[in-house]
Amino acid sequence: MKHTLQQVFRSSKFVTGFCIFAAILMVVIFYPLFVPNPPLEIIAQGSFFPPGTYVSTYDTVFSSKAYTLNLTDAATKRIAAKLGDQERNDIKEYLMLVGVPEDQIDSTNTILLLDLWEKNYDPTKKISGMIFSKVRYFERLNKSLDGLLSEEGLILASPNIDTGTLEQVGIINLSDYVNIKEVASVRTLPLGTDNFGRDVLTQLVKATSVSLMIGLIAGLIATFIGLVLGLLSGYVGGMLDDIIMFITNLFTVIPSFVLLILISYSVGQEHRGAVMVAAVIGFTSWVWTTRAVRSQVISLRNRDHVNLSKLSGHSIGYIITHDILPYIASYVVMALILQISSAILAEASLSILGLGPKTSEVPTLGLMMNWAMIYQAQILGKWWAYFPVLLVIAMITFSMNLMNTGLDQVFNPALRD
Amino acid sequence: MKRLMFVLTIIVVFTLALSACATATEAPAATEAPAATEAPVATEAPAASGEAAAEVVAGDTVLPREETLYFNGQQWSAVVCWNPYSSNCNNAMAIAQQDNARTIMFETPYMYNMMDGKVYPLLADGPYAWDEGMTKITFKLNAAAKWSDGSAVTADDVAYTWASHVKYNTGTGAANILYVADIVAVDPQTVEVQAVLGDDGKSINPLLVQAYLSSNYVMQKAWTEALEARAAGDAAAFMADVAEDVVYSGPYGKFFSDDTKVVYIRNDAYWGQDASMWGKLPAPKYLAHIIYKDNAAGTTALAAGEVDVSQQFNSNVQDLWLEQGLPISTYLPEAPYGIGASLPTAFFNTASLGLDNVAVRKAIAMAVDYDTIIANAMTNQSATFTQVPRSLMNPTPGEQAAYDKAAVADLQWAGNDIDGAIALLDEAGVVDTDGDGFRDIDGKKLSYVATCPNGWSDWQAAIEVVAAAGAKIGIEITTQYPEWGVYQTVVTNSPLPAEGYDIFMMWSDGAGPTQPWGRIRKLLSGEFAGTTNNWNGNWSGFDNADANALIDAIPTMTDAAEIKAAYTELVKIYLTEVPSFTLMYRPQAFHTVNESVWTNFPHEGDGTDPAVPPLNLTDGYSVAGLYNLTLVK
Questions:
Q1: At what angle do helices B46-53 and B28-38 cross, to 10 degrees?
Q2: What is the ipTM metric for this complex?
């Protein structure tokens, strides 16, 4: 055993796959210890908030300490954020449309440009040939330029409870800064939020663990069925072999994914929990394991040590578990790994078709993809809602396939260097 | 052996790489093509981009982009027939007899305008009039009105259409027979609609009688007779006829249809170009609707400039112009982007344990975070309940003025009121008796299933938020999404099952000539309680004598103050008894336009008088918008 493990861990492919998988597993186990938020908690009012650190505006204003920093590039940055090259060109275009001669417009001189804009922009003026979405664009642009060149701070006011009038409670100067560490409420959302307003990263970690569990359950079921049927069919042979192979062949010709879809659909969403989906996947994907195990057993069945065991009067169960199983154990482990990875993919495919586990109980990788697609994340460029999920699915299956290849190299004499 | 394999592999890889390079250099044209399809983004070159983006072929004809207006979100599968007597033609663009009837091919006497709540003549000439005793409506037909075969539209056609609806018991006939006694031709231009009279000798429901005029098409008598001859008197055959030869009076007729698209072509002899009607022809020569697989495909086409008018839920629609800089806009510049007209509503199964208790119903409704529903599920395409406090009215100004806000202000909850809901439950004695964290009644835990059809994404997202509210007030609410086929059979048939449908979502009426009365009737009227095959409303089975009396009385009321008082009372009953609760406001139709090719679509403050409603240029008075379109220069 020790020797086998040593051999296995000498395979670079296996080690790479194992490391990736172990890393994913570590994150799944330890992340919830550090971020205990419920994965399905709706925190955002609005969908698809981009990744980043969110700082409470209110707390920022009332942060205990205010710092004054005189940064020379602050004003430039502020202006550049609202007035990029595109906006400057658009302003120039508008000014020319309303009859300002081109030589009077210097789109690089902010003060002059905004001065011209203020004098010439008239939202009520109809400009022939300008489409309405452009009219609205200029309205938005005009609004965003408001107070851009202001040198004054902003006054904070709150209504007096008795009189209802606004009273000044503070002032925010242009050079006021806060230290982000001193702001009471800050939340970092490394992968933003999804369409429901849930934290994508927290959800992704939970979904990964659920998907791994689905994969494991489905893989175990499929491997167990495949192993039992393969062993019986291969070792006992005869009539039993014919019956088992008949059933197996029947399942081989029906595409298992179609079967999966039909069963999932008929089960109905009200009964489709994660475990149920795992079971359905497991019960539809045992076919190839059965066939492979059977052929291996047939080649083992007439070996000398098996015959010897038979002569010694051992029972069928004893022979199968002691004389046959150990010889195909490595193959079964490899089959299990492949079953797990294909079950994770199957869950994702089912969920994308809307036939996965029911929403709202637990997240799964497939469900996350499904909802991102329904809310058109891929069209609107909200990559954080689906790309990390894709990446996790790819990493899990990649690591498992790599481990499998590594094991194959160790155990398959034909592939040994 | 191994070495040989290695050498072979290298050779194969090398060959593959070489061949890959070869195709890449050989096909510069192919790589340029996608660039051309991206061009609609550039607003400067819309003409060129339009043609490159969508060269749609219908039959033998390439549809010229600059003569075609493209739609999405209305037609989701192949058109199967052209027969307005049928109720399942699945011809969404041409046939929709409803409050805002779709009139591009078939026409109604009047068009309803949801912006001012008035009707405007289409086939009719001038307004309709009730007689003194409120027994019948008389209206004139426009003398210029012609069928597509050139013959005149006469009062006989109107009368014969109604007679056929009754004779063959069509959907329209069945829905109106209780209110419309008969429609007769006084002379070729004058139509008389006789109402079914009540005990007082007046129309029992004048609202529904006059709504008939803007909701139902006029069909040609001669064509109907030809159809009858074909059907040989068999009602099923009459309604199932494909009607490829149908005669119509509207500006567009059938051009092409298969399972990928449907195209309508302008009838250049359309009578509406007469000075008494529009005075010109509608701008687009073709109206085309590509059949998209789903919303995502439709949005992609809209963003690419292949769709001009989009009637579908485009989530986060503002990103299309704010972030992608596309020439796309909605009716309003800011959220809610459109005008809310209907009230998607969650109904209670009052037979479930605890839901017969008004305190439990109201507590759940108070605890729901509506702002989150609106921001997340509807991506802000709904007014909030702070902007438009809850009542039975939609957010249009006309309906908002129909009740006395001050009188019910203390009843209108804004949502997310966890403390209020907890206090209400505690006060009603609904408390957690066994310490499991959930409240109990008679020792049984309050546990409900909230549900809506699977795949109805914005509703599902809303139901998730409803479920989240339960946990905060000690009531277990889980979610479940059955398939629509199952769902619709269950919720439209009383009694509701004991499990699985405790809180379920359905719709309400939108904007129309009978509103808000029609919507209130369908939300509250006891006439629908306990019925089967109920597609009207009141799925909770609410039956309140006061509400029923008011609903019966309003259609015959004439005094404005009296009507307002009645509506206010109904709102009061609704907010006190909470048989159901509205989750969001939803536009009558989503209306997003792309100005890559066409411009001058209806938008707020566009200067049209009367204002053209944002209903995709197809529904009710919004067809007026087709005449205002111009090409982008």
A1: 120
A2: 0.79
